C-alpha cells in the first residue's frame, strides 16, 4: 500500500495525484471525477476532512471511495448500477404489442381506425388485463423502437381511382 490518508486507511499506489486529476478531467462522469479529485487531494497530503470538503463530499464518502479505488482502481470510482423495476409487460406481451401496432387496428373489433396511445392503453387492458396510462404507452413504444406518432388516417371506403382523377386535373367531364 502507498500513502496513508489516516491512521487506518491507506491509498493504493496505482496513480499519482496528477494522474488522478488528469483522469478526472477526461472521465466524463462528474461524480467519479469528484471522487478522483478527493483522492488526489488526500494524496497531496491534505487531511480527510479537507480533501473531502474541497471535492464537495463528506469524509465518509471519501473513505468509501478510497476503499473502492484500492480494490478496483479508477473503475471503482463510478456509481454502481441501480436496480430497476421489472417491465410491466413481459417480452411476449411487448412483442404482441409491437405486432398489433404494425398490423394496425381492425375498426370493427377495436373500435378505432388508427392507434393512439389512449386506444393502445385500452387494447392492452383488454388483451393483457394490465392498466397503462397513455404516457406510459408512449414510453413503452419508444423503448420498442416505435414512434407514438400516427399516420394520417385513410378512410376504409377510399376510391384510389377517384383520387388519381382528381390529381390529374379534377373532375372535369371525360
Report on the structure:
The chain is elongated, with a radius of gyration of 30 Å. The chain has nine helices and no strands. The N and C termini lie far apart (96 Å). It has helices spanning 17-26, 30-43, 48-54, 59-72, 91-103, 107-110, 117-128, 134-143, 160-169. 19% of the residues are buried. With 174 residues, the protein is mainly α. It folds into two domains: 17-77, no CATH class; 91-154, no CATH class. The longest helix has 14 residues, at 30-43. Helix 2 (30-43) runs antiparallel to helix 3 (48-54). 54% of the residues lie in helices and 0% in strands.
Task: Provide key terms for this protein.
single chain, 174 residues, mainly alpha, 2 domains
Amino acid at each position: 500500500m502507498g500513502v496513508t490518508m489516516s491512521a487506518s486507511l491507506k491509498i493504493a499506489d496505482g496513480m499519482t495525484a496528477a494522474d488522478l486529476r488528469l483522469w478526472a478531467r477526461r472521465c466524463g462522469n462528474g461524480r467519479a471525477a469528484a471522487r478522483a479529485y478527493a483522492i488526489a487531494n488526500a494524496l497531496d497530503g491534505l487531511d480527510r476532512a479537507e480533501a473531502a470538503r474541497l471535492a464537495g463530499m463528506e469524509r465518509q464518502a471519501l473513505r468509501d471511495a478510497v476503499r473502492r479505488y484500492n480494490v478496483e482502481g479508477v473503475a471503482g470510482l463510478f456509481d454502481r448500477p441501480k436496480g430497476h423495476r421489472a417491465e410491466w409487460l413481459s417480452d411476449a406481451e411487448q412483442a404482441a404489442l409491437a405486432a398489433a401496432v404494425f398490423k394496425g387496428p381492425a375498426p370493427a373489433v377495436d373500435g378505432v381506425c388508427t392507434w393512439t396511445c389512449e386506444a393502445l392503453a385500452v387494447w392492452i387492458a383488454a388483451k393483457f388485463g394490465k392498466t397503462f396510462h397513455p404516457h406510459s404507452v408512449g414510453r413503452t413504444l419508444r423503448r420498442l423502437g416505435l414512434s407514438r406518432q400516427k399516420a394520417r388516417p385513410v378512410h376504409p371506403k377510399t376510391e384510389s381511382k377517384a383520387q388519381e382523377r382528381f390529381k390529374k386535373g379534377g373532375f372535369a367531364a371525360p
